[in-house]
Amino acid sequence: MLEHIPVLLILAPLLAAFLVTGLAWIQSAYCLPLALAGLLGSLLASIAALHQVMAQGALSYEMASWPPPVGIELRIDLFNSLVLVVVSAVSLINLVASWEFIKREFEDRKETFLALYLLFVTGLLGVTATADLFNLYVLLEITSLSAYALIAMGPSSRAPLASLHYVYLGVIGASFYLLGVGYLYIMTGSLNMGDIASLLPAIWSSQTVLVGFVFCLVGVWIKMAFFPMHIWLPNAYTYASMTASRVLAPLMTKVMVYVMIRLMLTVFGAQYIFRVLDLGPVIVWLAVLAIVAGAVMALVQRNLVKMLCYIIVSEIGYMVGGAWMGNQAGMTGSILHLINDALMTFAVFLAAGNFAFKLGELRLENLRDLFARMPLSSAGFVLAGMSIVGIPPTCGFFSKWYLISGGLQAGQHAYVAALLLSSLINAILFMRVVEYAYFGEVRTGHGHHGGHAHGGEMDEAPVAMVACLLLVVASLVLVGLYSESIVSGMIQPFLVRSFV
Amino acid sequence: MHWQIDLFILTLVIVCALAAINVRDLLGAAVLFGAYSFLMCLLWAIMGAVDVAFTEASVGAGVSTVFFVAAVFQTTRRSKD
Amino acid sequence: MKRIGLIVVILCGAVLLYATRDFPAWGDPASPASTHVSPHYIEHALQETEVPNLVTAVLADYRSYDTMFETLVIFGAGVACFLLLRSFGARRREGWYVRHIPTGVVIHFRKRPRIPHSRFFERLDTEWVPHDLIIMTICRILLPFIQLFSLYVVAHGDFSPGGGFQGGVMFGASLVLMAISFDLRTALSRVGERILALLAFLGVVLYGGIGVLCMLLGGEFLDYSELAKILPVHAEEARALGMIGVEVGVGIAVTAVMAVIYVNIASAGRHDEGL
Amino acid sequence: MEQLLQEIVAKYNYWLYIILMMIGLYAIISKNNLIKKLVGMNIFQTAIILFFISISYKEQATIPIIRNAHGPGHVSPEAIQATAYMNPLPHVLMLTAIVVSVATFGVALAIAVKVYGEYETLEEDEIRTRIREKIK
Amino acid sequence: MDPVVSVRPLLAVLVSLAVVPVLLSSGGRPNVREAWTILAGLIKFGLIVSLVPGVLAGREFSLTLFSFAPGADIALRVDGLGLVFALVASFLWMVTSLYSIGYMRGLAEHSQTRFYCFFAVALSSTIGAAFAANLLTLYLFYEILSLSTYPLVTHHQDEEARKSGRKYLAYILGTSIGLVLPAMILSYNVAGTLEFSQAGIFGAGISPAMATVLLLVFLFGFAKAAIVPLHAWLPAAMVAPTPVSALLHAVAVVKVGAFSIVRVMTGIFGFDLLGSFHLGYPVAIIASVTIILGSLIALSQDELKRRLAFSTVSQLSYIVLGVALLTPYGAMGGILHIVMHALGKITLFFCAGAIMVATGKKYISEMAGIGKRMPLTMGAFFVGSLSIIGLPPCGGFISKWYLALGTLQKQSPLLLGVILTSSFLNAVYFLPIVYKAFFHGPSGGKGAFSVTKEPLMCVVPLLLTAAGSVVLFFWPQLFIDLIEIGLR
């Protein structure tokens, strides 16, 4: 079965999704175990794939045994195996953590939610694993379609509208991508990434290729909420059900960043992107704008989740800027940050979800005395926040290191400045939350009643939610401390051909 | 194939598209949108994409329009633009 | 907003027009798109799969993995519509309308009436929808033909335009026609929600199952030629049979999902009254 | 002049698809009515499909179904010429794209119905005032 | 130097971290909690003392924990300088723990468990910073220290405390992220390593302009050293409970800042490079400005803790000044000042806290005559002031002596003048307090002080540190040896 690993990791959640819809009408008690089994299967398969890739190089799977470019190929190399592991792990952990929450929010429709959730994950895994541009589009649409529905199901009355706006922009994004693929197809006649990559150098000067690339890129940017195409994201993720945004926020945008880097490095090649085209400086400036705008917008938010959403917008700026820096350090930083940011965002959203489970709406004022009520969740939140700010030894620091390093090497001082500025603003943002949550007025008046003078009894979220949060937070530190092995073991071998 | 027919239908398609987004009645827009889809399907049939034309006829001109009408039935026909 | 829209549109249009200068001329048989991969399909598909309709061959075999996800998109849309709209609670309403068929008298009830189970009474929708004997009768006659034709489209997809998707949409449309010409309740009493869900499930499982079966028989995922091991045919015919199998799966799933989407949108998820 | 005419005949299809697409894009961005935007979205998608179909067209070629494939006097596999049939690949891709667009359309309509249930209107500006009122 | 791989430095760092869960779980029982705190302090001090003979014998204990990039690992290394700092910090932690028991219980503070936990974390990171083998590790512990002291600063949870906390973090995090981080990465890009070494890491590959910019960025970036104009957080942070001010703002936090600057100048740039680019002098000037300004502002403060805070601002720059002289004596004096100032200043803070606990008084103008009520406390205060001023028989004299020698070596009468002026100013703002405390009557008439006796748990520690200050005057040799090893 080993040779089937690339397809198994997609099939596991897919079949689970089918079976869940079937079982929901017959014996709904089996749905959750089935979904968990599916996600676990996909996690194991992606770990096995990572292992195999590290041992013997990229895996290629010819769908229906037609060799590419005639058939569709799945191709797993160092880069996407890493992303696959993150995607499957995050989705598995989120399901474990959110089940109580899902049960409460969706009551009689939780099995349907589960099915859509699995479809969403399947889509993400498929997008990451495929080596076919059109297949990527189809899977992207599966992901988006389930995301639209998951967001529209939010408890807030504004959720459907936010989701509808996401639909409009999402469709524009996907269509732009498709159009770009069409342009590439008209010039090369192929859809397979590797095949196109081998055909492109002959027609580098073609305007069609350039425009195709630009449209692919803009499409992907819309999907990843790159400033100024980010307008759909904050509302969508804020008004969605926390159970959904906990998986959407860390994965959706990051997988799109993956797609962008894949397009840049594998399809078009670093040579074309950085030498033939001279878009780097312009896009880095856009990234600077994204970083600053995201940070500033985050400052004015009074809603915790919305604030986190704007932080995502600025983090997207980090990654795009790093990727377009044109040197190995920047690209390394971008890829490492992709992994780290997925974990960091996941951790803060897990914590926010725990808060929401107990508090309902997460306006900053509602967070008073949170620490006394939910000490573990808040501690997890603070650690995750530290990682986003970039305090060592959490992983956020190490990816920032490479990003800044890349910026300095490329002479992009504005980017470095923006990155530092946004780190500082992130620090302010998280300190503000901490002030509300930890250092509100002591209710009994300070200095006259020893011991615990905090108001509010301890009222922590369910065990599974807290345990998952702590697990993810621990992984933030571990990934940080072992980032060297990720960089030298996986990212740099992948990049070595691109940056000589 | 005669490019004159092609051009004629293309023009009609564009007219239908403009009408569909400009008519101030959603039910009217639904019908015009159906017409647009059907003309498009014709165009594709001319270009030899029979399978796609078939699909567009059943989906675009058929089911999509029905969904559209159903949605208008559940909401409102009113449209300010 | 209008101004932003105009600027974006003009910008995009200009960029796109700029790119067309490089395009190969329209209909040029020597363009890269027509010479790189596609000749393989045209020249070898018949030999390799025994299916003369090249689109079907590419759709259901060479790029069957895409098609599986295409089915999945439809399936997902059905699930999504169900999740979004289906509400099990009854609508707050002004009353119930019941018609006594022989006299044509319509009675309005404040509370839910207990209608005697007889063919003399029928429930009417609160909101007026056209309800015409002629339409009903004609549709009743037409329905079987539509459905038969859609089955033909599915089955004959290998040789002529059509296939699982088109056939499925037509079959779904026939259900929708039933719901429109009679009313939603009649349609749902023939093909209930559970049955639709089960059909959708069966359809996608049929597709995925064939793929997995190929894998279990020792081939790659969706490599129908492996089916020759359990069918009394040779590998190329097995491919054609596999294609029919998945097309049927697509057809079933699409039928069910089209009906689900329609029913949910038309009744805003309450499944009692609607267009 | 001759050249220009040739250029027009060779490319007008592409240009018209661009016009169509821009109509759709404009509608998505500028229309106020939520369902109108969906119409624009569909026009936008069909325009792209039109573009792909244009790619697949070949002069002097027929629809991509092999003639005389089976039965007596059937064509030998070696005799099939790639230039004799349209390129089937874009057709396949666009079948998928149509399906995707109808699925998206369905889901979007469902969401729009939900939005209407919430605000009793489909006009964006009116919805915005409702939201503002609610916050107050 | 022979390097020895040893886990002892790591253990020394982790001890107080490991005690945090225990503290958390013993939240309800203060005695258990404080017993653990002190026990951890003893173990930590013991571990650090056990490293002394080895270092004196010329060994270098080191341990690489995680590697991040070549030359930028997360690694610990014990050398003379680090050991000096660690010894002082861990010794004073024990004393402070004792003191805080008296203080916190005396004032019945809330959230004491949180207080002890973050105290322990702060100590861990201080020791970590002392033992850091490279700039990356130093930065890591520096940041953890900043964050873990924030809850201590905001301990009172009122508006003023929150404001000060904001100010504190804004200055500390702002500079460390905004200045140190890019400077560090730039240094790494230039040099390819961040490992401290006497020769510096840059070699010939750096231009004078770049070196100047980097040095200045580092100097201001380590804002914990409170170089003017980045000193404003220090007086603001005085809202914290006194043990915090004492340990963290006289010893741990500010000294980590100064120590980081010392490390950067000795280990990253190296004296040779600084000398050849003539970078010592500008730094010395900046430090001198801080010294004089700090002293002048201190003169005008009426709140005792604020006066001490500004005094700290000025004294910290002695350390920087000493190292910036780039002479052996100067460096010796500067680093020795870490030790001497720590003991002197902590005594003064303890006294301020003891007065606070016993009488509730915060302002100097209210303290006339207090010496008669609290003779032990004010006696210790006198010793502490002497040490800060730099008069025998207190440790401060030794460090200032070396500093003065350093300026002479450098042949810079201006800097000598700065040191002398500042010492004079120190005397002007400290001695009147003592004088009034003993020889004036209370301004508000007899019986203005409700205190009957000095709180024991407060007095014992401050006597200990005052005695330590005197002892160091007579036996400073251990530290001098260690620093010599460290600077070799």
Return the structural class of chain A.
Answer: mainly alpha
Q: Specify the helix fraction band of chain A.
A: over 70%
Using only CA atoms, what is the Rg of chain A?
22 Å
- How many structurally independent domains of chain D? 1
Tell me the distance between the termini of chain D. 65 Å
Biggest interface and residues each: A-C, 61 and 59 residues
| Major sheet size, sense and barrel closure of chain D | none
Give the CATH class of chain D: Mainly Alpha
Give the biggest sheet of chain A.
2 strands, antiparallel
In CATH, the topology of chain D is named Helix Hairpins
How many strands of chain A?
Answer: 2
Query: What is the averaged pLDDT score of chain A?
Result: 89
**Average residue pLDDT of chain D:** 87
Number of distinct beta strands of chain D: 0
Write the CATH architecture name of chain D: Orthogonal Bundle
* Topology order of chain D in helix (H) and strand (E) letters: HHHH
Task: Compute the number of helices of chain D.
Answer: 4
Oligomer state of the chains in this structure: heteropentamer
End-to-end distance of chain A: 37 Å
Total DSSP helices of chain A: 19
Order of helices and strands of chain A: HHEEHHHHHHHHHHHHHHHHH
Describe what is shown at a glance.
Chain A has helices at about 5-25, 30-55, 80-105, 110-130, 135-150, 160-190, 195-200, 205-225, 230-240, 240-275, 280-300, 305-325, 330-360, 370-375, 375-390, 395-410, 415-440, 465-480, 485-495; strands spanning about 60, 75. The model of chain A is unreliable at about 445-455 (pLDDT under 50). Chain A is globular, with a radius of gyration of 22 Å.
What does this molecule look like?
The complex is a heteropentamer of chains A (500), B (81), C (275), D (136) and E (488). Helices cover 76% and strands 2% of the residues of chain A. Chain A has 500 residues and is mainly alpha-helical. Chain A has a two-stranded antiparallel sheet. Chain A is globular and about 70 Å long. The relative contact order of chain A is 0.09. In chain B, helix 1 runs antiparallel to helix 2 (26-46) and helix 2 (26-46) packs antiparallel against helix 3 (50-74). Chain C has helices at residues 2-20, 32-35, 38-49, 54-62, 64-85, 133-155, 164-181, 184-190, 193-216, 235-266, and strands at 96-100, 105-109, 121-124. Chain C has a domain at 53-88 and 130-266. The model of chain C has no long low-confidence stretch (mean pLDDT 86). In chain C, strand 1 and strand 2 (105-109) form a beta hairpin. With 275 residues, chain C is mainly α. Chain D is mostly helical and 136 residues long. Chain D has one domain (2-62, 84-135): Helix Hairpins (Orthogonal Bundle), CATH 1.10.287.3510. Chain D contains four helices and no strands. The model of chain D has no long low-confidence stretch (mean pLDDT 87). Chains in contact: A-C, A-D, A-E, B-C, B-D, C-D. At the A-D interface, helix 5 and helix 6 of A face helix 2, helix 3 and helix 4 of D.
